[in-house]
Amino acid sequence: MSLVLLPAVDVANGEAVRLVQGEAGSETSYGAPRDAALAWQEAGAEWVHLVDLDAAFGRGSNRELLAEVVGELDVKVELSGGIRDDDSLKAAMATGCARVNLGTAALEDPQWCARAIAEYGDRVAVGLDVRIIDGDYRLRAVAGSATAVTCGRCSSAWNATAAPATWSPT
After folding, report:
1. Domain that holds residue 126
2. Per the domain annotation, does 170 fall within a domain?
3. N or C: which end of the chain has fewer CB within 10 A?
4. Which of 84-104 are b and which e, b meaning 16 or more Cβ less than 10 Å from the residue's Cβ?
């Protein structure tokens, strides 16, 4: 097994952006998501991680734009952001992405997440953001933070279903 790093293109209001510490409203724009994704592809990336921040933060969607970007890339794409139910999961899968990444939904509804993994197998990954707060490691969801109890409930529901691991310090 080898470590594969996924460069990310976060998308808000139709533009590639970077957030400060993952906080909504702290965006710095970097232009067209298509151009950013193609730049990663041209730099040799095997995967590109596309994130719909508007969907993640519940303030809209860049679904059609991200589907266009997926269609223009020759590398594998992992799609995330706002995938919290069957409809959003099916729409994400319909883009042709190689994999979706479930984050907040994995904490909020671990049983649904387990069903998604059972249905789609390795086309579903779970990505959890971890921060160090007051010396403790804490999971962070878009809607807030989770406790160790939540983590235990999630891992039980997922039944140790393995998916490729990704890690990013936030």
Report:
1. 8-158
2. no
3. N
4. beeebbebbbebebebbbbbb
CATH number at residue 133: 3.20.20.70
Q: Would 167 be classed as within a structural domain? A: no
Q: Residue 79 falls within a domain, yes or no? A: yes
Q: Would residue 10 show up in a list of annotated catalytic residues for this protein?
A: yes
Catalytic residue among 10, 74, 109, 134: 10
Strands 76-80, 99-102: pairing is parallel
Structural domain contains residue 21? yes
Which of 74, 87, 129, 136 is labelled catalytic?
129
Closest CA to 53 of 2, 28, 17: 17
Q: How do residues 126-160 score in pLDDT, each as one tens digit?
A: 988 777 778 887 776 554 444 444 444 444 444 44
User: Is 87 considered catalytic here?
Assistant: no
What value does the mean pLDDT of the chain take? 84
